[in-house]
């Protein structure tokens, strides 16, 4: 495993970071989830990313149980706040980044994760309905109380990041990370978010480096969907992957296979190694529904893809790549969800 600093902070994270978004507490049984976490540890992964909303809190609970008995100081645990969590009906303050919701949410996350602090506490989305000053003051109080060491954001625009960073400086708290979607097929952060983050000393922890599994090459145009794959998951996975399932995209992905073979990499390892070529990327998030899946993911650690291979990738993918930076703003909820 290789390690990188998170932005310009002193915090080092494993460049392959384990995330449990669509798996723990929902798609896989708890014993398999625990086996995946233990295999990640065996492979040198020390950084683990989750969120309170994943499986309505169950993902944090499963991760906390799986990490029980590990030396806490040797781990980096990340979680997030924004979406509603808990029993129905949800209350009117059970979403967003109000002081009330943020302060209550950190305590819930720490309880489920069975830890006194998280290394990174992230705003899962930008909140249009709460003053940014209120949110950042709540984060400052959490940091100053020792419940979180660093602060991050997820799917924020460059302007939103810049505004939050200015307040963080005033409040003397370290805003060090951004967690956006990023892959060979989804490059919308490159024009605005990455340059702003580089200027401010913020690193990217990117999710879906394999474009929801499409970049594994297992989806072949005109062929039946693989049984048990994300594209067949009616619980949510199929909706997330549909943007990448056009035949034109799937055909282009198949043309990446010779490039991966020339580099001695599997398709998953190529996809993960590709995002790690961006110097602003501190870590690539990977998940697993089986422990053996992590074997290929970690082979991306420390890989340098030659410039000629990077050019071939760009040529092969051509117009199927999504680059519009305006799409970042679409991640900001335009209304309260409860």
From TrEMBL:
The record's section on InterPro entries has: K_chnl_volt-dep_bsu_KCNAB-rel, NAD(P)_OxRdtase_dom_sf, NADP_OxRdtase_dom
Listed Gene3D superfamilies: NADP-dependent oxidoreductase domain
Specify the superkingdom. Answer: Bacteria
Q: Which residues form the NADP-dependent oxidoreductase domain?
A: 15-316
Q: Which key words are in the record?
A: NADP, Oxidoreductase
Membrane spanning stretches: none
Give the family, as the similarity comment puts it: Belongs to the shaker potassium channel beta subunit family.
- State what protein this is by name: Aldo/keto reductase family protein
Task: Give the source species.
Answer: Nocardioides imazamoxiresistens
